[in-house]
Amino acid sequence: MKKLEILAGVAAGLVAFLALRGLNLFPWLLLAGLTYFLVTSRGQLGDIGRKKVGAVVSHRPQVTFEDVGGQRVAKRELMEALQFLKDYDRARRLGIRPLKGILLAGPPGTGKTLLAKAAANYTDSAFISASGSEFIEVYAGLGAQRVRGLFEKARKLARSERKTAAIIFIDEIEVLAGRRGAQVGHLEYDQTLNQLLVEMDGLKLDDDVRILMIGATNRPDLLDAAILRPGRFDRTVRVDLPDREGRCEILNLHLKNKPLSPEVSIDTLARETFGLSGAHLETLCNEAAILALRKGNEAISQDDLEEALDKILMGEKLEKLPSPEEIHRVAVHEAGHAVVSEALRPGSVAQVTVSPRGNALGFVRHAPKDDTYVYPRETIEEEICILIAGAGAEEMFFGSKSTTASNDFQRALDLAKRIVSYGMSPLGVVDRDTASPEVLAKATREILDRCHDRTASILKKHRMHIKEIAQALMKRESMPGDELRSLLQRDYPGRWRWRKLPSYRGKLTRKVEEAARG
Ligand code: ATP
């Protein structure tokens, strides 16, 4: 740096001196500028050309299929597809055309990379991995050059490890193999993809190194049809979010090296983590261990795991504390959600909390009995009732609603609209584009009204329970589902009188109607 500064100073002094002597410096300055540009740009281009693609895992990856929790179908499909690499001679005798590519498609964090590594281990292949984005450059021809380089590197690696097979894993393959002509500056993209197709077409059964491509993507819909045609990536393996059994297996895998308190129930945790990926579950186990460390405990407790789950679902606990009035309102709101949820789906609440996390001041964590994949109209209407119950409870106790409910209303409205769109309303199958907005709004309002009446009657029946739950929440922030259920069993003697709720129905209905119109 210093040298450069001195050089620049000397050059500036020289230029000034020569200019004073009346010398024409223009051609010299032009020459200097041109030389500078050529030197710097050559450096850059050279770097790009030299950039290597693909992280080499030169030893056999340590991951085995036993390290992948759940994903029974994906594992079976993959193992079957790998048989030709594993039992090459038999496959050859049977005249099996070897697979050149396998596509692993599914949401992020479900174990696609793990499966690819396990595949390399299972088949005793050399393993090389790269990401689709590593091939994309603005300079024409470089992507294609890198694809060629990657195949070459895989062959070399296998030979150096004395292996007869290599697996090339490309993550985010949709970046490299997206539909041709779709990208801006698409010529470079197209050349790169064309090169991949050429390399795959060139793979032969009698090559000294048999290469199998494994691509992973979250967006199979973006892939070019040419890549999916038989003879290229002709097997697609779905790697979905784990079901309950799968979550249990993944939790067991990630907790096996951690000390656990005797009361820890992995089964309960698996029930409460519907919709979470393997990566989420791994983070949950890690966060729980960090919490135990922070508390100075020797083992991870169920509370640590539950708290880690709250953190993953809702975000970090916030420092800011709402005022007692706000906490009271939030407690009543959450108690409303929890009570209606239990009334409609007994055993569904895992925990009610009023500690501020992420964007929420409180929340109810649900633990559905079983994973649900099909939603009949009744189930969606129950969901709407649970969503509007928070605002209903607030109105019952405070005579008004608050902004706490805005997100609930939006979601309730979306669900009601979905009932209409999916042909589950009395209108039957409708085309939203041609149906009159008034007819659609009326059908939506009828659903919301029906849900509202149902919610109001449940809330009314459990008014005293809501009050008690809210008081308990204000004292100690959260209440586990079991405690909530035993509290709901309590009978209140006749001396309790329901408060009159004259404006309750009207206000809530108007709000919902306004939202439906909007
Ligand atoms: P992405 O699509 O974002 O690239 P991915 O599907 O490739 O994600 P991985 O990288 O395989 O996901 O998983 C990330 C981490 O999550 C793994 O290192 C592992 O700790 C954990 N994990 C994910 N799925 C599983 C699983 N089925 N069994 C065990 N651990 C898992």
List the main descriptive attributes of the protein structure presented here.
extended, 518 residues, 9 strands, Helicase, Ruva Protein, domain 3, alpha/beta, six-stranded mixed β-sheet, Rossmann fold, 20 helices, 9% strand, binds adenosine-5'-triphosphate, three-stranded antiparallel β-sheet
3D architecture notes:
The relative contact order is 0.07. This protein is α/β, with parallel strands linked by helices and 518 residues long. The chain folds into four domains: 2-49; 55-66 and 91-237, Rossmann fold, CATH 3.40.50; 244-314, Helicase, Ruva Protein, domain 3 (Orthogonal Bundle); 324-517, Up-down Bundle (Methane Monooxygenase Hydroxylase, Chain G, domain 1). The two termini are 62 Å apart. The protein has helices spanning 2-20, 26-50, 72-86, 88-93, 112-123, 142-160, 173-176, 186-201, 225-228, 244-255, 266-272, 278-295, 302-314, 324-344, 377-398, 406-421, 437-461, 463-476, 481-488, 504-517; strands at residues 55-57, 101-105, 126-131, 165-171, 210-217, 233-238, 349-353, 363-366, 478-480. The strands form two sheets. It has a six-stranded mixed beta sheet, sandwiched between helices. Helices cover 56% and strands 9% of the residues. The structure holds adenosine-5'-triphosphate.
Outline of the structure:
The protein has 518 residues and is α/β, with parallel strands linked by helices. Helices cover 56% and strands 9% of the residues. It is built from 20 helices and nine strands.
